[in-house]
Amino acid sequence: MDLTDKEYVERCRDGHPEDFGRLVERYQKPLFSFLASRVENFPQAEEAAQESMVRAFLSLKKLRKPESFYCWLLGIAGRVAKEQFRSGLRHQPDPDVAEALMPAISDSAEAYPLEAAIAVLPESHRQVILLRYYEGLSCQEVATRLGLPLGTVTKTLSRAYALLRQDLQARERAGQTVNQTEQP
Amino acid sequence: MNCAECRDNLVACAEGLLDHSEEQQCRAHLQTCAACRAEYTAVTSLQQRLVARGQAASEVNLVGTVMRRIQREQSKPERETIMSTILKHRWGFGLGAAGFAAVVVSISLLGTSKIQAAAAEVMAKGAQAAAKLTSIHLRGQLRTPPADNFSAINPDADFVTVELWKQFGTEPKWRVEKPGRIAVMDGQSTLLFIKPDEALKIPRPSSSAFDTQWLHELANLSQTLTDELGASKAHGWPVTLANVQGADGKPKSVITVEATSGLLTGDYLKNKFFGTADTRRVYVFDDQTEVLDSVKIYLHAASGDKLIFELDQIDYNQPVDSGLFQLQLPAGVKWAGQMQMLPDNEKYATLTPEQAARALLEACSREDWTEAAKFFDPLTAQEKESLGGLQVISVGTHFTSAISLISGAQFVPYEIKLKNGETKKFNLSLKRDARTRRWFVDGGI
């Protein structure tokens, strides 16, 4: 039986660190996708995703709202991506080129807020979106996996789409980037 | 259908879940109502965006790597947290070397911290010398079954050649090869070929894959050497530094570090893979060029220390033939792919490891390859020939290794009689697929 983010976080803190693997399993794909749009290539995204997960684990006791784990993880990932970007600039031999590249990270971050919008969905909605799109399950398979009627899954998806669109439109208007509710 | 009904059914329509009549009514309404049509377009546009995001990450699997890194981080003394109380030791690529005892110039007058500092200086210079690589080629001899997993070790096996070519830069590429398998990352995707006729593809680049991590770690000298010293300091592993004359007459610095895997004696996986072995590693640095010359790894086996790996060639910044990063597969190769949801998936998802093992073996016994493929896919012609018609003698109770915390593998003892009369008694390694929750064979057959 799948537990909620909050339950997994609490289990990790209570001496079951192996349960962090379930959180990695749950969020590795959206995290990777989020990072792939912020760094230069897929191997870098993979490395940044690993680094973000490790930092999240090591800072787990500082997480004040365990139910906001994914949102908090994206905040960490955003900082890891920036560090990686700056590290790349340090190896850029031409200071003018490095200077010109500096705004690129924030620009690209604003252009891809989808995973950040998913992060602030209610957990039940987020779970359906992640299973449907990041795990590639059909609606019927999502229903089986979660033990829900098919109609409930399509209604949840419908509501999730509406919330995502609202959030994306708001972000576009505000030019806002990642919603970071907590610092690690 | 009016607007409210249409909006209620929009997602089901976009998902193809409406029956024929409902779908026709929905689509008819969409043709006549611009507002609902705009809503439908917005939904499908968002769906397409989500599909693209999901597909980009479809093959990502970070669980093992992240959990190993967490264990490594936990081994650092300044970070005493939950994991470190459970997992006291670093399980990564261990260190080691006994064979150099005869040539080591004793530095026993130095305290451990001074040896650490001196070793750190030699290693730091080596790491610095290797920091701006454009390419690296490693070739070594490894005691391993030729076709087995890239990280499998066996002190009783013969040496086989294992090689890694890696090109750095904006589009990294790599190739790892041993006699029975080849893994190639060509900048676009990552491919594993298991001879003679099995292949697996990850449709995106990766920094390492298919259990080649240990060789990549060796290629990433800067990080590896830092990790090795940190781990040896954290655990108090003995470190020695010796100044010797190499076979080429040049002065060398030899650093040896003992390492333990943290697995207890008797753990099923102990000493079967690099990450689970108690080893001693010997690094040899050239004092003039300050680069790493060679590495030897010795396994602390029950029968005594045994050389299991010797890195005998390292080429820095040599041009690499681009053809090495292309892999031509033979015709008729069988592709291992993502496990698919079955119509009766729940039935299989609720099996115990013992039930899954028995179901697989009995399917092989009946030569029911469709059923067997639900646990073991692809089954090659060679495997079908070997397993077809087998007789199940027994299936025991499953057990785990300490490493199962990370890998999730469960081991089921079994005994079978093959149709050629041979009796086989071994342990089936099963893992549960994250997507379908079904058990699949990861080894041991």
Work out the helicity level of chain B. Answer: 25-40%
Task: Report strand % of chain A.
Answer: under 5%
Tell me the helix content of chain A.
over 70%
CATH superfamily of the largest domain in chain B: Lipoprotein localisation LolA/LolB/LppX
For the biggest sheet of chain B, the summary is: 12 strands, mixed
Which spans of chain B of ≥5 residues are poorly predicted at pLDDT below 50? Answer: 77-112
Strand order of the largest sheet of chain B: 7-8-9-10-11-1-2-3-4-5-6-12
Low-pLDDT residue spans of chain A: 89-111, 176-184
From the coordinates shown, what is the CATH architecture of chain A?
Answer: Orthogonal Bundle
Question: CATH homologous superfamily name of chain A?
Answer: RNA polymerase sigma factor, region 2, helix turn helix motif
Write the element-wise H/E pattern of chain A from the N-terminal end onward: HHHHHHHHHH
Query: What is the percentage of strand-forming residues of chain B?
Result: 25-35%
Mean pLDDT of chain A: 78
For this structure, the CATH topology of chain A is: Rna Polymerase Sigma Factor, Chain: A
Number of strand elements of chain A: 0
- Structural class of the secondary structure composition of chain B? alpha+beta
Distance between the ends of chain B: 58 Å
Largest inter-chain contact set = A-B, 50 and 51 residues
